[in-house]
Amino acid sequence: MSTEADCLFCKIIAGEIPSKQVYSDDAAIAFLDINPFHRGHTLVVPREHVTDVLEGDRQLTTIAPAVDATARLLRDKLQPGGLNIFNSAGAIAGQEIFHLHVHLIPRYESSPGLANLLNRDPDAGADLDAVHAELTS
Predict the structure, then answer these.
(1) What is annotated as the active site (predicted)?
(2) Of 3, 34, 83, 135, which is the most buried if we count CB atoms within 10 A?
(3) Measuring CA to CA, how many Å separate 62 from each of 46, 50, 66, 118, 131?
(4) Using DSSP, how many helices (H) and how many strands (E) does the chain show?
(5) pLDDT for 23 beyond 60
């Protein structure tokens, strides 16, 4: 489990590690996942270090406006056929970075349905710069 001092997402929020940020507000930031499941896979994280959605005082409600704004940005700019929004709380649930984060995963006709959600598109990470440009233009 990470602490604030060694947390990857805290370092991204502080600007110590570069990211392809697509949204920010006072409570959260959103940036492209560097190992995306599908084109445009984005993470929304609270600025405050919180281990998971079950820790602290209702952090999900705090970042909900950022989740909503980022989901709409992905829909409007990337034109996916759908979008999955999910969170994993705890290692048993598959959480790998212990700073609350919500995954926003645009979905396309080439790989529909829940069965294909976690099957990484091998080309999804190849054009992060292009996706970032689409989302921030």
Answers:
(1) 101
(2) 135
(3) 8, 12, 9, 27, 27
(4) 3, 5
(5) yes
> Residue 122 pLDDT more than 50?
yes
Q: Which CATH architecture describes the domain 4-136?
A: 2-Layer Sandwich (3.30)
Report strand pairing: 42-46 vs 21-24. Answer: unpaired
Q: Which amino acid is at 107?
A: R
Q: How far apart are the first and last CA of the chain?
A: 36
Tracing tokens 């056929």 back to the chain, one arrives at 81
Task: List Cα–Cα distances, 123 to 61, 116, 135, in angstroms.
Answer: 33, 15, 18
Give 3-state DSSP helix, strand, coil % of the chain, rounded to 5: 30, 20, 50
Whether the predicted pLDDT of 128 surpasses 70: yes
Q: Where are the domains of the chain?
A: 4-136
Which member of 38, 49, 101, 103 is catalytic?
A: 101
CA distances from 71 to 2, 5, 39, 57, 125 (A): 27, 29, 13, 23, 19
Residue 101 appears among annotated catalytic residues: yes
